[in-house]
Amino acid sequence: MFTEAQNFSIVQTELDGVFFQQFDYTETFPGVARATTGEIFKPQETTHAAWIQSINKGSGLFPAVGETNAVPLSTPQVTNKQTTAIVTFAQGIDISKQLFDDNMHGVWAADVEDFAQKARDTQDYNAFALFRNGFTSALTADGVTIFNSAHPLIGGGTQSNVLSGASSSLSPTSLNNAITNLVEQKDQSGVIKGNVPNLLLVPPALWKHAIEITQSALIADSGNNNLNVYRSALGITVWTSHWLGTAAGGSDTAWFLLARRHGFTRLIRQGIETALTDWRYSNNLTYRYQANFREAYFCADYAGSVGSLGV
Fold first, then answer.
1. Which domains does the chain have, with CATH numbers?
2. pLDDT tens digit string along 217-265?
3. What's the predicted TM-score (pTM) here?
4. Of 199, 217, 219, 275, which one is least surrounded by beta carbons within 10 A?
5. In 213-285, at which residue ranges do the beta strands (DSSP E only) sit?
């Protein structure tokens, strides 16, 4: 015979078993990105309620000096402070004792699976907002949008990391322009960094086209037998998310190219946690199942990224 504590533990275990099986589920569609995709959102753990970062302007190129000349000094500078507040996300569902006990047609299990999926959807929706809003309201520490034609450099001058105009729609030519922009980007001191392109992020409407451009053995959209350098030399990985397209409030034409070193960050204060309130503590014979997590997303610096609205 089970005690009350044992019964409660069994219910918690059963609910968590269904929840985490769905929450940890990995999509089989090729290249579907999530908030937990580390290549796109670099994970950074914190123990605080806010994360404060500043952008550093390092030294410039080394000048030539004479045999007995004094060594010139370059003074590093830190500015463009940005504070990112951790956000708590939480939700709960009520499951009646009778529904759980009977589980007719697997209803309570389906409810918990949906609950877990919504937790993952919440993470993904907020993560990809950096890209959806990257041309409008999502800012870097310099005070302008993540993808902007005139990022002010600490050492003076500006840097663009956006493609625009009629030739910016995704194509072998525009991808090459984005690669050139990425490679020739200057850091905050005005030194060209030679960033290496690593991944191409596109909405579902561009996924097929992006795969053809980057992974065809021969160059795409051409009758010539030219070697496809995007596959053979660079090995660019294509990622997609349904949280980028028009249906999610984004764009079906916008696309993004990232280097291995970029500024998109997932700030993790607390991973997903669940809790169960027993029906005995309710006034209507109902279990209350809750889940919560604490995190935030930011991009402090433009470096290592190029975006295009595709129009």
1. 11-51+81-308 (3.90.1690)
2. 766 666 666 677 787 788 899 999 999 999 999 999 999 999 999 999 9
3. 0.90
4. 217
5. 237-240, 255-259, 264-277
